[in-house]
Amino acid sequence: MSQIQAGDFRALARGITLVENELPGYRDMLMSLKDTQNARVLGITGPPGAGKSTLVNALLHHWITAGKKIAVIAVDPSSPFNYGALLGDRIRMTDFYNNPNVFIRSLASRGALGGLHSNIVEITDLVKNAGFDFVLVETVGVGQSEVEIAGLADCTVVGLVPEAGDEVQTLKAGIMEIANIFVVNKADRESAETLYRNLRILVHERATDGKETPVIKTIAIQQKGIDELADAIETYFAEQNTHPEKRLHLLTEKCWQLIQAHRMKNLKRQDIKNALEHALQQKDFNLYRFSENYY
């Protein structure tokens, strides 16, 4: 922990491995965490193909130029069969591999729903102890209801692109309701202006206390609109400090996730699979009666 707090990236990587795999000693390490509210957590989410990794890369360029120290936790989808993953986000961030102010860690979702890793709360809090200004958490490509990032991040950016789907589908509830900032990425493409206008109408209708959710157009691969996006993020962070009820809501969500994970700890997916394999051989198999054995 002393090495992590001193900013040692290798120690931080080892610490994340402890927490990720729940190795002996990981709970003691979590119990010793301090100053977990210093670094701000930025969630980047949106449907597949929205350019989330490119947005993260562009924000890194902006904040590193400004002298900030940044950590990136990139979650990639796992195979539903063997839980392996291609950690492709690392490919897009090669500019920062050797930068002393950037730490990048890829995680496989390992079948967790919500676009994140099952131990993402603990991993994020550990990373926040390493003296970063911002911790960027990039989710897998998520759908309308996979909104777990809202319970983790101090600010959630939802990235959308014109070809993400028809307008009605895009503007559905769920993922649209968790956005603190909307980004219309790849804004040079056809129909981008239509999506932008529809989002502006949406946020105007949902405005509370006269404040509308910012909608920003970017072309992340060209670094266009990134200064405006970074300003909106930093403004949100500054204003959030004046809303303690939002912090309370966020901490309640985190606490709920921790309790839920602890209650489920003794349930092993492989054990359930083995039991199911045996139960399926019974003629009177019923999934609901079977599941009741684990309640």
Give an overview of the whole structure.
This protein has 295 residues and is of the alpha/beta class. The chain is built from twelve helices and seven strands. α4 crosses α9 (226-240). The model is unreliable at 78-86 (pLDDT under 50).
Quickly list its features:
295 residues, seven-stranded parallel beta sheet, 12 helices, globular
Nutshell version of this structure?
The chain is of the alpha/beta class and 295 residues long. The protein has helices at residues 2-5, 9-20, 26-31, 52-65, 89-92, 120-128, 167-170, 192-205, 226-240, 244-263, 269-279, 287-292; strands spanning 40-45, 70-76, 102-108, 134-138, 155-160, 181-184, 215-217.
User: What share of the residues does DSSP label as strand, in percent?
Assistant: 5-15%
Strand order, biggest sheet? Answer: 3-2-4-1-5-6-7
User: What is the tally of beta strands?
Assistant: 7
Roughly how many Å apart are the termini? Answer: 37 Å
Structural class by SSE content? alpha/beta
What is the tally of helical segments? 12
Give, in order, the helices and strands: HHHEHEHEHEEHEHEHHHH
Reported for the largest beta sheet, the result is: 7 strands, parallel
What oligomeric state do the depicted chains represent? single chain
Mean pLDDT: 82
Unreliable segments of 5+ consecutive residues: 78-86
